[in-house]
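Task: sequence in, structure out. Protein: Midkine.
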Amino acid sequence: MQVQGLLLLLALILLAATTEAGKNKKEKVKKDGSECEDWRWGPCVPNSKDCGLGYREGTCKDESKKLKCKIPCNWKKKFGADCKYKFESWGGCSAQTGVKTRSGILKKALYNAQCEEIVYVTKPCSSKIKSKSKGQ
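Result:
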């Protein structure tokens, strides 16, 4: 009988400890204390040059915040780092212009960025002739 009572007491202590730990985690998530829900975020501004680590400023009513952000160094500068597109395959090479073209449809606009719905990109055609090598 004493063993059952001891196990019950141990279970209650363990339950209380895990409940308290869960409360602490929830409090840490909401530590900024902001009740504002309509944040307006600006573009990510790199600390140096045009890519890498930086920050973005946000405002809501009379509050303002800065968030850390990162612009990849291979991003499409024309579209902005906050506009994500789904691109189709490259088209054929144009003999007149010597370039290939493909389009991208907006997939996601981060931080309420102003993005174009469809974008077009071009690149020079390859001068190399690709041949399929046969394994022997």
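DSSP finds one helix and seven strands in the chain.
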